[in-house]
Amino acid sequence: MNFSNLLIKWYLQNKRDLPWRNTTDPYPIWLSEIMLQQTRVAQGTPYFLSFTTAFPTIFDLAAASEEQVLKLWQGLGYYSRARNLHKTAQYIASDLNGIFPDNYNDLLKLKGIGEYTAAAIASFSHNEVVPVVDGNVFRVLSRYFDVETDIAQASAKKEFTALAFELIPKDNPALFNQAIMEFGALQCVPKSPNCSICIFNESCAALQKKKVDQLPVKSKKIKVRNRYFNYIVASDENQNTIIQKRTDKGIWHNLYEFPLLETEKEEDFSFVSEQIQNEYFKENKISSISENNNKSIVHKLSHQHLHIKFWKVIINGTIKEGIDQDTLRSFPFPIVIHNFIEKELN
């Protein structure tokens, strides 16, 4: 079909030289696909290079500790991806002798691998005729064919997958999948695409109908929850501090943080300092309490906005199980805490 031929021709002329594109080895392809979920290529590439340096094979990744994996992942967000990555590596290394499943249906059974990732690995590694459907593909197809189906609906994935399957050349599915994703990332971008230079500007239905900015249709709005975190950064006479592991399910599971006072709203100095005096470091006398940042740092996650303050607390004597600055820096933290440590605790 002309659409596929034009698209592949565009791709071969315009594709980015990305480190995971020059291989059919499923291990680096899998790593890149997991990392690029919810993440831009420019942000994900340094992490990919760090991971493949630290863990050149799936056996190396499987043998690492979860904390090593989370530390390298620090800053990429959506940390469940890293935990699932690690568990899947261990399963493939121990139960499958380090060999990835070679087809879409078996890949889909692995932890952390959904329909899109399974399709990407199956087509890029084994040239299986299965279309990838992600945000880029929704956007390209909905605009080109003027598809008004709400992509937030569960049925949309099936409809777009069927459409992509009709278009995919059965002799080279990998090239088509790479091409349509790259086209959505570089040319048919979400906002203000430059349609004047588009290879499809004479055949794109949305352009003809002046609907480019209206497609794809997505109705579901995410409800954002506001949370108020007060982190207590203690320092004793040895300059040691104390941290804790987030073991509850939810954000930042198994990452580390300073002792946390979560409040219903942003509280003032008198309220927080009273809570610290009454609830924390009962074995030590508190010498002083001060706000490190009087204006909250707003850290935005997909469903939550965290309003974060750091409180410096000077302790007389020594803290039980306190750790020094070098040890502190070896733990995996959420990026907002990592940045505080690097900037404020020198």
Automatic annotation (TrEMBL):
Its EC number is 3.2.2.31. Binds 1 [4Fe-4S] cluster. One of its GO terms (biological process) is base-excision repair. It is an enzyme of class 3 (hydrolase). PANTHER family: ADENINE DNA GLYCOSYLASE. Belongs to the Nth/MutY family. Adenine glycosylase active on G-A mispairs. MutY also corrects error-prone DNA synthesis past GO lesions which are due to the oxidatively damaged form of guanine: 7,8-dihydro-8-oxoguanine (8-oxo-dGTP). This is Adenine DNA glycosylase.
